[in-house]
């Protein structure tokens, strides 16, 4: 058992801002993420607005999701936006060759996506097609979305029912160009990115935050090639401000938590303790990989003008038995919640460089927030971690050091048993704690320094079984409950964490 872990939390040393965009999302035309998940069509008996499912919107609004990436993923590099605007009955169909080889009817396109973002109160993050699209097509999409005057694309947008341009900031150029996005070498992509980035114009007051498509996992060569190859085109402006002067403001990378080999990743719900620890080991590897990309970027951009964006992360297991292998539908257990907790702590620790992260994917695909089944909708354990961590959005990171954290296992199952982070916004402090021990509780005793605080209030996400998950029949098998084991005495905050649990504690500065 992990026993007792001691630590120090400095309440009066606020560090960098934890961007709310670290809590970003991702929706691809993949399986039932868009169709059946977000979008059911206007004729659906389910409550909807313009075909967008309102129960899903309400659930996600409660998370204050800051941004939504679309239309892919791999799909982005075969998507031609002109096919998805205009009267729906006249839109051409296409084959979604990456995901299930199904026919896509383009009924969810640019206007529907922007309407979804407006309903969610989320900023759009659009991924343009570099793999099989043209520079002209990308250039015209920006014009269509963001131009106000009587330009050809603005006129076309008006003909399609939208007068005002939309504000669009986040603009991705391609996706996984080393793989499904074109099978390119980093050097080749860097040149293409310069070209596509150049013609992704700022129209009027709109300022794009252009994100070059990045590495897989620990491919630091890719990041270095972008930092060198995009050269003077990279630049985020003042500090790591969002409106930079260069052609590119950020580079991305992807990191998935996969416990087994690609051909047999492992079940989402049926796993033993060894497999659990292997999963959490993979999740904890992210911290080192973030440090690796950040170190490469520091060498070329010591003042941190360029942002790092992790625009796909999450667990990737075998699909649920009997479902389409190309739809990537998986259940979501308490294990997924702990993976999320570990990721957020690593994100907070890298807030100086990491400006955005997007979980893959928001609805019905991979590590989802929400699973739908016909008219039923369940919130996953991962959803609750996003909800409980909301206080970190745009808060300032606080230094939190733990000592005496136990670890278990060796090699591929080696895991640090406790993970934590803290932030401060106005007079509120939020501490997040994850106990990864599969078998035992842990006590965390934090010396609070630098300020006095009022009585702590806590929530805990736990369940008797690590494999616990929510279903339409049992929607609350895993849900937050008040955290009982919490005391503040002589400036020490003591938190009793049950086995395999995630908890948050709120403190108010006095
Ligand atoms: O999220 C599923 C897929 O994973 C994305 O389409 C792709 O970018 C990645 O390989």
Automatic annotation (TrEMBL):
<keyword id="KW-0326">Glycosidase</keyword>
<dbReference type="GO" id="GO:0046556">
    <property type="term" value="F:alpha-L-arabinofuranosidase activity"/>
</dbReference>
<feature type="domain" description="Alpha-L-arabinofuranosidase C-terminal">
    <location>
        <begin position="311"/>
        <end position="501"/>
    </location>
</feature>
<keyword id="KW-0378">Hydrolase</keyword>
<dbReference type="Pfam" id="PF06964">
    <property type="entry name" value="Alpha-L-AF_C"/>
</dbReference>
<comment type="subunit">
    <text>Homohexamer; trimer of dimers.</text>
</comment>
<dbReference type="InterPro" id="IPR017853">
    <property type="entry name" value="GH"/>
</dbReference>
<comment type="similarity">
    <text>Belongs to the glycosyl hydrolase 51 family.</text>
</comment>
<dbReference type="Pfam" id="PF22848">
    <property type="entry name" value="ASD1_dom"/>
</dbReference>
<dbReference type="InterPro" id="IPR010720">
    <property type="entry name" value="Alpha-L-AF_C"/>
</dbReference>
<keyword id="KW-0119">Carbohydrate metabolism</keyword>
<dbReference type="InterPro" id="IPR055235">
    <property type="entry name" value="ASD1_cat"/>
</dbReference>
<protein>
    <recommendedName>
        <fullName>non-reducing end alpha-L-arabinofuranosidase</fullName>
        <ecNumber>3.2.1.55</ecNumber>
    </recommendedName>
</protein>
<dbReference type="InterPro" id="IPR013780">
    <property type="entry name" value="Glyco_hydro_b"/>
</dbReference>
